[in-house]
Write a structure and sequence with these properties.
The chain has 165 residues and is mainly alpha-helical. It has one domain. The protein is 54% helix and 5% strand. It is built from eight helices and two strands, in the order H-H-H-E-H-H-E-H-H-H. It has helices spanning 12-23, 27-34, 44-58, 76-81, 87-92, 112-124, 133-142, 146-164, and strands at 68-71, 101-104. Strands 1-2 form a two-stranded parallel ribbon. It starts with 11 loop residues before the first helix and ends with a helix. Bound molecules: zinc ion. The site of zinc ion has 5 residues, from loops. Zinc ion binds next to loops.
Length: 165
């Protein structure tokens, strides 16, 4: 398995820098230093409240939320973030946006900023099905640092898989 599968689609120089960090064993420490804050959103009902609060703030007029839950079987690349290059192809056959929000369980133990990033991502899908320009505009409207957070969350997922192996 490609250890940098979460970063496919990012520039090769960037991937090379990440490989270097990994080889030096510094990726985990770098992430821990930058993203030291954890969160207390443990249960599905806490997750629901968390998502609802963000939605109230930024997407009040959008469709009401359906179910909100942590899903241990959800694969982040396949179902959530996409691979960054083939995103619209992968997501294109989704017929309509779902009101149900599933968050991969890996985010339950992730730093607070990454939970926020993935929730922003899924909330944006309430309005935009595909990962198109309007979708990312909505993400950055809710969270101005969205792109950096998505990239760093991909680094975090890369790190998690390496330490689990
Ligand atoms: Zn998506």
């Amino acid at each position: 398995m490609n250890p940098l599968k979460y970063l496919a689609g990012y520039p090769p120089q960037l991937q090379a820098r990440v490989s270097e960090l990994i080889a030096q064993g510094r990726l985990g420490a770098m992430l821990a230093e930058k993203y030291g804050q954890s969160h207390a959103v443990r249960s599905d009902s806490q997750l629901y409240d968390y998502v609802q609060a963000l939605k109230d703030q930024y997407l009040r007029k959008s469709v009401p939320l359906g179910k909100v839950l942590y899903d241990a079987r959800l694969q982040v690349l396949k179902h959530a973030l996409g691979t960054h290059t083939s995103i619209s192809r992968v997501q294109g056959n989704r017929l309509k946006a779902s009101r149900e929000i599933r968050i991969a369980t890996v985010f339950r133990d992730a730093p607070a900023d990454f939970l926020r990033m993935i929730v922003v991502h899924e909330l944006a899908h309430l309005k935009e099905v595909e990962h198109n320009k309007a979708f990312y505009q909505l993400c950055t409207h809710i969270e101005p640092d969205y792109h950096q957070l998505e990239f760093d969350a991909r680094l975090y997922l890369t790190h998690c898989e390496m330490v689990r192996r």
